[in-house]
Amino acid sequence: MQTQLPDILTLWLVLPATWLPLAAFGLILVLFRDRPALSASVSIGAMSISFFSAMALLVIHWQMEMPIQFAFRWLSSGDMTIPVGFLLDPTSLLMMGIVTGIALLVQIYSIGYMAGDPGFARYYALMSLFAWAMINLSLSPNLLQLYIFWELVGVSSYLLIGFWYEKFSASEAGKKAFVMTRVGDVAFFLGLLLALIHTGTLDILTLCGPDTAEKMTPHLITLSALLIFGGIVGKSAQFPLLTWLPDAMEGPTPVSALLHSATMVAAGVFLFARLFPFFSLSPSAMTLFLAIGTISMLMASTMAMVARDIKQVWAFSTISQLGFMIMGLAAGSYFAGVFHLTTHAGFKALLFLCAGVFIHTFGSNDMYEIGRMGGRRLKMPMTCMVIAAAALSGLPPLSGFFSKELILGALAELPNPLWLWAGLIGAFLTAYYTFRLIFIVLFPGTGVKVDPDAASHVHDGHHGHSGYGAMAFPLMVLALLTLLLGFGQGLLAQFLGEGVHAVPDPAMAAHPWLLFTAVGLGVGGVLLAWFEFGRPRAARVGFVERYVFLKALFENRWYLDRLYRWILDNIVYGGFSRLCARGDRDLIDRAIDGLGGGAVGAGGLLSRMHTSMIQYRLMVMFVVMALLALYFFFGEP
What we know:
The chain has helices at about 10-30, 35-60, 90-115, 120-140, 145-160, 170-200, 205, 210-215, 220-235, 245, 255-260, 265-275, 275-280, 285-305, 310-330, 335-360, 365-370, 380-390, 400-410, 420-440, 470-485, 490-500, 505-510, 510-535, 550-555, 560-635, and strands at about 70-75, 80-90. The protein is an all-alpha fold. The protein is globular, with a radius of gyration of 31 Å. The N and C termini lie far apart (about 115 Å).
């Protein structure tokens, strides 16, 4: 694919957008760690400039004819050269706008939420590092540069998830996230190397071009795509590596909002969209991706149906919605997946930030406690959360409705109807568990017993009403975006279509029944949730919770964590680790001990021989001298 060089204005806009957050990170750590207010100002100022630069680039290049790429040589070996630089096309420009916009709002919100925290300056430094890594990931022109920033995003998320490292649970959650995502990243790196060996390049536009099919056999393309998708599975918490994301809620709520909406977990879906033409070369791989997205979507929905922690419910919904995005992309609709990524960033950030207001005010993550203590009295966050919940449920005319319908339309075009029915079931479950939470907070009822063992009492440690004003502004902005963003579908399709030749799927027009079915299932999920949790005499027990086996299965996350623990204890630790320890003890240690003992013995022998030889020589000398003396004194003259 042909590219063009950037003009001076583009360079002047890209450079501050990509490097000012890193400068803020360094300044805060080196100079401003003891000055919280100045730290926040530096971080928010840098992010504001990045956001306005991203918006200016979007406006200037709204009708770009070809991608803009700037790169210079970084590594070279023989005929192989790997550059470093940036790539501006509709996909990267859109993602850059999402990242900078959400990051800016979250940092403004954090002024109130993190007020008084002893690690306030460190928090803003890490948020700047997080945003810098994600911005540069979005603009990377080749897979190696993308992989480097991919890992930096993982490191930043580890530091922020375990931000309150004094708590054992927080440090464990950070380690779990780091280790589980590394499993996928190893596969990603292997897939990257496979593509490099057979194509001689890691340039994204080249890999997505028509020449790749000539340089790699279909089997190699499938293998490389599957390995790269391993990184997406880890980063976007898809099956089977999905259990780290709910535990990541140990970090501050603004971190959860940023991580779930525009950065770490969204990076996986962005990579899928970034390499969409390359993945599309392998129908077998796309079918497997579709299956993984479907399984993740359904499993996470069932987990959310029994969770009590408000942040974990939204975490499970993130896994489910990321599965929806992967389903849309794997079904062949680039626009459906990217559009849902865009709308999801707005309403998911809004859901987490609203949850943060409740946690900040009431000091509890348990939705039953929040409802009992009067969560509905907080009018503004309650209203915003209902708007975001309706968007998550795919109810018209909110943004989530438009993007989710496009995904269902893409699934309807597939020859196997199983995928569409799975998507419709997911739409119903999403509406049910989302409004289950809403009705529990809105209508707690009387005599509600709060089970402290079942609840997840992971408090963020910031209670009271201070900083409410700083938290209110981002909520209003995100609520407005949630209300209006869906109506920009045509403009976004025109923008993205220029770069990837993709347009919205016409499947909804071909299947008019699908629109009414999807909306009907969403409304049905809301009505079922109201019947079980919202009406005055409701038992406030879900239909799944009435079955002990299902409740235990979903609460224990399908026993995936127990399976991983069994594998670690019996196969990794009890098998490989024990075998390696025995080899180390019986082979390496004995060999080294034998070598050392032999050296000591040989040294002793040599030392004795050396000592004996000296005595022998002295004795010989004495005897010779004695004989000579006898000869001279008693010998003949």
